[in-house]
Amino acid sequence: MSTTEPAPPLPDLPTRDVDRSDPDHRRWLQEAVRKVRAESGRSADTHLLAFPLPEEWGIDLYLKDESTHPTGSLKHRLARSLFLYALCNGWIRPGRPVIEASSGSTALSEAYFAKLIGVPFIAVMPRTTSSEKTRLIEFHGGSCHLVDDPRTVYEVSARLAAESGGHFMDQFTYAERATDWRGNNNIAESVYGQLSRERHPEPAWIVATAGTGGTSATFARYIRYMQYDTRVCVPDPENSCFFDGWTRGDPDAASETGSRIEGIGRPRMEPSFVPGAIDRMMKVPDAASVAAVRTLDRVLGRKAGGSTGTGLWSSLRIVAEMLAAGERGSVVTLLCDPGERYLDKYYSDAWLAEQGLDIVPYARTLERFLATGDWTEPAWPVRAGTPA
């Protein structure tokens, strides 16, 4: 059930200290960890899709299709890691809710895992979150607490956790540390394994958008740990502070409004965003992101969310740079979640008009590039690319 009222408090905890060595509590914890790890064992790896480019370019572009997870997005991996991290730290307790600040996909995946281990779940989300995401969260047994100002999701989540005796999962703090970036079947290890028989098995670039920043940190750390030469680019949408904070080296960078591209871009520099691990950032117009997901649908017959478009636009721009420089190699980006969740947004001309977004010039850039190899993008106040 979606609400703007405070979540109803659960019964008070006993006034005495909770004894976590109690056999019943330990049995519950062991069973909860078993269930989450068993779910991982039942899950197959996700596909690495080839995006068609002219063979003579000598450049390959792939999309890691994270939409095939049980909850339909890249955030399924993160939610599993966050639950294991919190359970093993003793932060999640039987009968007490897990609360998360999220723009939708993480909350959906966390609702799934909360239901799996039998604890309540509350998602604190901006009111602009797509209705399909709120429906899916509720389908998995969670409840949605909607806020008008996206900047208040952290404060409201912490308050609800205090009121209910629950645990604020806080993905924006713990995403980069909950995932084992050295291996353990993380997304980076998976990509390199899948590329092992390709003509360019070590990609020149991996392009990963940032919401928490956990995925880009996982890729970058794994690449350095394994001593690869791959570079990591993080595209950033409008109304997000990550690009400004990275270029200026400003940990206090902030944005006044929330991102229109659900799942990525933040109004503050999040603790899980690791600027020093990133080689390059691009600022991407929202209209370009939407044009890119519609191009993906036209070329591959796959609808995807706006964050996939942000990554795809940046990836094709990098391919254009490699082509112009006579370089060969491969580029990998992510298909983060399915576009069916956004039919009333990124695939709606009425929504585009309401937002004042003109995707036609960006769609022409992509169409011309894929046909001729010429990249000429519309002028924009902030150019995408590396800082001077």
TrEMBL record:
Keywords: Cytoplasm, Lyase, Pyridoxal phosphate. Residues 52-337 form the Tryptophan synthase beta chain-like PALP domain. It holds the Pfam family PALP. Its cofactor is pyridoxal 5'-phosphate. Its EC number is 4.4.1.1. The keyword Coiled coil does not apply. Residues 1-12 have a biased composition (Pro residues). InterPro entries: Cds1, Cys_Synth/Cystath_Beta-Synth, TrpB-like_PALP, TrpB-like_PALP_sf. Residues 1-24 are annotated as: Disordered. The keyword Transferase does not apply. The modification N6-(pyridoxal phosphate)lysine is found at K75. Residues 14-24 have a biased composition (Basic and acidic residues). It catalyses: L-cysteine + H2O = hydrogen sulfide + pyruvate + NH4(+) + H(+). A cysteine desulfhydrase that generates hydrogen sulfide, H(2)S. The H(2)S produced by this enzyme modulates the balance between respiration and glycolysis, and contributes to redox homeostasis. Probably eliminates toxic levels of Cys (which can induce oxidative stress). Belongs to the cysteine synthase/cystathionine beta-synthase family. Cds1 subfamily. This is L-cysteine desulfhydrase Cds1. It comes from Streptomyces spirodelae. The gene is cds1.
